[in-house]
Amino acid sequence: MSFAGPSMGSASRTARKTLEFGRTHVVRPKGKHQATVVWLHGLGDNGSSWSQLLETLPLPNIKWICPTAPTQSITLFGGFPSTAWFDVADLSEEALSDLEGLDASAAHVANLLSTEPTDIKLGIGGFSMGAATALYSATCAVEGKFGNGNPYPVNVSAVVGLSGWLPCARSLKNKVEGSQEAAGRAASLPIMLCHGKGDDVVQYQHGAKSAEVLRSTGFQKLTFKTYDRLGHYTIPEEMEEVCSWLTTNLGLDGSPS
Question: Checking DSSP bridges between strand 71-73 and strand 81-83, what pairing results, if any?
Answer without folding.
Answer: antiparallel
